[in-house]
Amino acid sequence: MRYLYLLLFPLLAAGQFRPGAITMTDGSRISCLLEVPEPDDRYLRYRTSDDEPIQKLGPDLISEFEVRDNWVITKYKVLTLAGIRRNDISTLKFAKRKSWWKVVVEGKVTLLSQFTYKPGDVSGPFRGPVSSSSYTYYAFQREGEDYAIYFTYDFTGRHGENFNRNFYNKMLFPLTKALFGEKCPDMLQAMTQDIMLSNPYVWIATYYNAHCGN
After folding, report:
1. pLDDT in tens, 129-157
2. For residues 83 and 148, what is the distance between their CA atoms, to the nearest angstrom?
């Protein structure tokens, strides 16, 4: 039973209502207890106090929200996600609805992340057990834009060195060039494989905010 409790604890913790605030698209602000939504959730659930009923808000009504754990404030933005094809920024394709993104680095360029967890599966007559998996996906909100552009998932440490360097050459560097090369050409000169393969997402946002943009 104790083992089962430990397995369930992360799921229970994720569903807790925590002190925070919601900023609406009209600029108004609601101080409340809220539950951080999962990436696929269509609503954010909150209550104004422990004794009040749970209420729901859709992403189109929310600009951002934050949760407080002691003195630590974690901020989330509610944005439409766009993707690009063949590393061509002119091919932006937008999602049909907004989604919830955690703020990792905020500035002229804001780095956003989204964590997903998929449990293992043993269903189906011809399928063996499939191990659980978790991924962190990253997106950037560039200055002056009200949407986020999907970048990639966190591949660092997941694969062998040859895969990672191939990924850098064929995707990571071309994507960085497509998103930031015009306004921040010095970034491309400063990039190295060793830097980018250690923590590329934070490095990109930090470098841009320190050296580039308006």
Report:
1. 445 567 789 999 999 999 999 998 776 55
2. 9
Q: Are strands 72-85 and 147-153 parallel, antiparallel or unpaired?
A: parallel
DSSP assignment letter at 19: E
Which positions ≥6 away from 139 have C-beta within 8 Å? Answer: 81, 101, 111, 112, 113, 114, 148, 149, 150, 151
Using DSSP's 3-state secondary structure scheme, residue 207 falls into helix
Q: Give counts: helices (H), strands (E), the chain.
A: 6, 11
Strand partners, 55: 46
d(CA 123, CA 53) in angstroms, rounded, equals: 37
Task: Identify which of 114, 85, 87 has the alpha carbon closest to the alpha carbon of residue 101.
Answer: 114
pTM exceeds cut of 0.85? no
SS3 assignment for 140-168: EECCCCCEEEEEEECCCCCCCHHHHHHHH
Strand ranges, E, within the chain: 18-24, 29-35, 44-47, 55-57, 62-69, 72-85, 88-94, 99-105, 110-118, 133-141, 147-153
Sign of the C-alpha dihedral computed for residues 115, 120, 123 and 127 taken in this order: positive
